[in-house]
Amino acid sequence: MKKVGVALVMVLALCLLPLSSVKAETKADVENRLDQIEKEIAALKKEVSGQKEAWEKNMGFLKSIKLGGEVRTRWEIQNNFDFAKNNTDDFFLMRTRFSIEATPIDNLRIFIQAQDARVWGDEENGLNGWSRGGDSESQRTASDDRIDLKQGYFDLQNIGGLPVTVRVGRQVLSYGDERLVGANDWSNFGRSFDALKLIINPAEGAQVDVFYSKVVESIRDNRLDEDSDIDFYGIYGTTTNFADVGIKTFDLYALILRDNGFNNDDNEKPGVLKFPAEVDHKIKNQGNSTIYTVGARMAGVIPVIEAIDYNLEYAAQYGTIGSADNYKAVKDAKGNIKKDKDGKDIYKKDGTIPSSNLNAWAVHSEVGYSMPDFMMKPRIAAFFNYATGDAVPGDKRNTTFVNLFPTNHDKYGMIDFMRWQNMQDIGGNLTITPIESLTAKIAYHRLWLAKKNDAWYGSPRRDIFFVTNANRKGDGDNNVGDEIDLLLKYTYNKYVALEAGYSVFFAGDLVKRGGTADDGGKAIQNHKTEANWGYVQAKIGF
């Protein structure tokens, strides 16, 4: 029995011996494996750290991207805009914009904005059209160049560690109340400039822009004429640092415009210096012109009576206006303009308009009184606008103020029958806020010509209202007319805004006795002398 027990112990020992060896080998392997895992973890941490830095860098760029967009639709109706035929026209306009803004690295900002502008049912689209708020033809006219870039520029910021930004590319220029330089955003196309701009911020609340831009206008014969480019450059400074004395904004500016003229036989180039042609005349071969504009603007409140606000601007112009050829229509015995073999009107040269020295000025003033504690928070205002005209057209001294590249709409009446050029405008308006998101405004304008021998200049790009000297009779013939405007604006939310407006214009003696270029210069006392215009607009933006 004792021998059997010894044998069992020996067998058990022999069985446990390899297990002890296996256990020792597993421990060594585990220690080696742990060392290997620690090395792999260290390498992985290093790799993850690098990936994290790259991811954070990429995410920083992605986070800097901002998307924007706008869809604006407007229905307009016009009645008797030529004061002769009593026609009524209505149309729908649509504008779509999409933008992307990014800051890929510090001090570099990129902005790109695309635009499509069209009339419903019309495939014509573009960015460079010329457009007037109440002009159906010009609203529908788009550049045939099909350029779909509204803005595309980059900013180089903090140049040399200084508060200086350089902006290069296609961009919008907008200054002050946009009476001289603006985006013209009311029109379906708007306005852009190919520009180089230096933005300087010398102190908090102060900015100085120095810019050079080239305006290439499209001519309706579907070609771009490089020789007829318009160069526009200047310096514009603004500050808000005088608020303590009631001046919330103070601007000083100096602007230079060089127009290289044009040789378009139909005088259709929409340049800012286009001569007004008398009835049955056309202007051709305009020479080079240079206009210098200097001015100041201030807006604010009266310090002791902050309920009273004001807005004042004065601009003076100097320079030279190039010569141009004057052509007169050739008529048959019945007074109809003769046609050539291609069916075009025949014109014969009828003298030359000499070059002239420019000396002109313009002023805007408005004073308002707000009552925020009263029901519907009314504000009542009175205004006066004046721009010089030329008393003796065709001589070597020109005193017609030129309002450059403005946003004209709603400055001198919503119907846009007048611009800041050979004009007088006096009137007032009342604004109320029935509810927080709704404002209503009614305005009255009394309009005259500054000089009755000069043209009646409508909104930029269309001078249909020139009245011949021969048809002007009596001292009262500089009375253009009276306009009443009604405007409603409703903000549905931060993305959706609605508008509706209506204007009625009562023609004055200038039209009644003189006629307009659209009706051959005939007196229209036997025609309807009231024009009407209205619109409804919806805009969605983000």
Describe it.
The chain is mainly β and 542 residues long. It contains three helices and 22 strands. It has one domain: Porin (Beta Barrel). A hairpin with a 7-residue loop joins β4 and β5. The strands form two sheets. It has an 18-stranded antiparallel β-barrel. The chain has a three-stranded antiparallel sheet with strand order 10-13-14, with no helix packed on it. The protein is elongated and about 120 Å long.
Give the low-confidence spans: 125-146, 218-224, 264-270, 468-475, 517-525
CATH topology title = Porin
N- to C-terminal distance: 100 Å
How many separate structural domains? Answer: 1
SSE order: HEEEHEEEEEEEEEEEEEEEEEEHE
Question: Which descriptors apply to this entry?
Answer:
14% helix, mainly beta, 22 strands, 542 residues, Porin, 18-stranded antiparallel β-barrel, 3 helices, elongated
Which secondary structure elements does this structure contain, and how are they paired or packed?
Layout: H1 2-64, E1 66-79, E2 88-105, E3 108-119, H2 136-140, E4 149-156, E5 164-171, E6 193-200, E7 206-215, E8 230-239, E9 247-259, E10 281-284, E11 289-302, E12 305-321, E13 324-329, E14 347-353, E15 356-370, E16 379-387, E17 397-398, E18 423-435, E19 438-448, E20 479-491, E21 496-507, H3 509-514, E22 530-541
Parallel strand pairs: 15-17
Antiparallel strand pairs: 1-2, 1-22, 2-3, 3-4, 4-5, 5-6, 6-7, 7-8, 8-9, 9-11, 10-13, 11-12, 12-15, 13-14, 15-16, 16-18, 18-19, 19-20, 20-21, 21-22
